[in-house]
Amino acid sequence: MNRPRVAWRGLWLAAAVASCGPTISSFSPIAYEQATSLKVDALALMGRATEPYADHRVETESLTVRLAKAYEFAKGRPDNDISTQQWRILIDPERHLLGGFLARWKKESKLSATFVTEAKGLVSDAFDTIIGLESGKIKPDQVQQ
Amino acid sequence: MTRFEAFLKALKDGLRELVTNSVQDFSQAATKDGQAFFKKARVDLERWTKALARGQLSKADFEWLVQGKKDLAEMAALQQAGLALVRVDQFRSSLIDLVIGTAFKTFL
User: Fold this and answer.
1) How many Å separate Cα A142 from the centre of its chain?
2) Cβ separation of B89 and A138 shorter than 8 Å?
3) Does A15 fall in a domain?
4) B58-82 confidence digits (pLDDT tens)
5) How many angstroms away from the CA of B64 is the closest CA of chain A?
6) DSSP per residue over B11-56, as a string?
7) Is A10 domain-assigned?
8) How many angstroms from the chain centroid is the CA of residue B9?
9) What is the pTM of this model?
10) Residue of B nearest to A16 (CA)
11) How many domains does chain A divide into?
């Protein structure tokens, strides 16, 4: 194959790649603020799980609603499947992160101090994966269409 | 060499550099994050087994935490997958800049 033809093919390929739409959503300050704010509130509430669940039922329900809103916000954004999957894992009561922790607290009424400390570490890291992905996304003013 | 051939050559050189830098940056960042995750997982598991042996964690607590670490690993993998897609978009933008910049430099 002669060189100009290879070069043309390369150029067409480059043009094709360049003309594709974005593969992942751009940075959202709202999503970032939701995640950081929910992290602080969730960890504070988890810290009270050595006390009876009934004493914190209202706060827990309020947090659960806010978590559901954050999930729906993520789900509604275009090209945002990965962040949505992260939220789903975090809040799922059948899993073993925030949703699972709140479900276990409700079921057992009180949790041990050591368990709460260790679970907080996991949930903190889990939020950081959501925050880390969001902050790593391209800022809207840097997006080239 | 015609101007168009010079354009193609400059583009090819620029593209080579762009690919090398993009792949290298991402590979280094992903490796560093992966290593940090496994290092922390090891430290956590060591602490949890000690707490289990001392009776500070119940068997159910320990199992729950290990399952939690598995769920966290899934979230971390999703983060890396998402950041890889961000790199693809950044590469695409750089490619557009490279083609336009090289064309302007060669033909204008």
Assistant:
1) 22
2) yes
3) no
4) 999 999 999 999 999 999 999 999 9
5) 6
6) HHHHHHHHHHHHHHHHHHHHHHHHHHHHHHHHHHHHHHHHHHHHTS
7) no
8) 30
9) 0.85
10) B92
11) 1
